[in-house]
Amino acid sequence: MHPPMQPGWIDAPHGRLNLSRLVLESGEAIEDFELSYAVHGDIDDRSLPVVVALCAIGSSHHRLDFLIGEGRALDPGRFRIFAIDAIGNGLSSSPSLLRRQPRLSFPRFTIRDMVNSQKLLMQHLGIETVDLVIGASMGGMQALQWAVSHPDIVRRVVAMTPMAKTTAWSGAINHAARLALQSHAADPNTYPDQLPNRWESWSAIMQLLGARTPQHIDRQFNGPDEIRRWLSDRTRLWLEQGFDPLDWIYQSWAYDGHDVGDTPGFQGDTIAALQSIRARTLIAIPPLDLYNPAEAGRWAAQHIADCELVELLSDAGHQVASATDPAAASELNRRIAAFLR
């Protein structure tokens, strides 16, 4: 079920790809597989370039709405934009949704499995070439994976705050957030009365300490009391959204295990995988990122042949690729539009 609309979100027609099963790279399969997506622009106008817009961990097809609209980088009058919900986000097939493989019986999946399901959607829609794959955070990681897995299909990639291989630091952040949600129970729904406290602990890690910088927090809040009120408000918002914590945990496992070097044919060589990318690429990073280190994005850019690195002058940290910092959002719109021209 679609969560309640939020300020800044753009309503758009929705679609679903239905498959009897999706075979994962582990050899397991998701039965009765469904992939949710939204479409911006005229889906029937084959003259328009195709954009695949990807969501971050714990987010939906609305994640890149700050880039979509008339006069923005992704103008629906100029592109057909397919904003795709990743496996495990509560709209596409997820542990919280499947009746035949509910909750912890749901098979674990990878970021490559997400990309493979998105490629199947393009095939189903009769789309042979993707003019742009774009995403932030886990979406940026998927975008780089698209370029490695399907070099003959992807023409351009925009990866914001990405990693080609998940760092130990990022994995530590995810693990702390999982511990906050699980509280020693494998399935967070074991004690549903504790969910508000668990989401508040998770929010402190994922939406505050990992997502922003000390400078941004000090500028945004007047002191600890205001931060506590903000966390209470964020917790209430997440509860209203109805996002299942087990879905986030599954996505975080995929996040932790990601390395484009594990793509078949590269034998774990991350550099060789990045060097295989043929798509024109733009990587955008902030000066400081306390979730996906900026150094990881900079390192990936060094190994992609045709890559433009954009370092945004913002203290928003990992939230730089969002509407959190209006100046950074405006600059991203401008730089991406120029890149696409």
Structure notes:
The protein is globular and about 50 Å long. It contains 10 helices and 8 strands. By secondary structure, the chain is α/β, with parallel strands linked by helices. Helices cover 36% and strands 16% of the residues. Strands 1-2-4-3-5-6-7-8 form an 8-stranded mixed sheet, sandwiched between helices. The mean pLDDT is 95.
Tell me the Rg in angstroms. Answer: 19 Å
Report the end-to-end length measured between terminal Cα atoms: 37 Å
Q: What is the H/E string?
A: EEEEHEHEHHHHHHEHEH
Enumerate the strands of the largest sheet in spatial order, edge to edge or round the barrel: 1-2-4-3-5-6-7-8
Helical proportion, percent range: 25-40%
In round numbers, the mean pLDDT is 95
Largest sheet: 8 strands, mixed
Task: Give the gist of this structure.
The protein is of the alpha/beta class and about 350 residues long. It has helices spanning about 110-125, 140-150, 170-180, 195-210, 215-220, 225-240, 245-255, 270-275, 295-300, 325-340, and strands spanning about 15-25, 30-40, 50-55, 80-85, 130-135, 155-160, 280-285, 305-310. Helix content is about 35%, strand content about 15%.
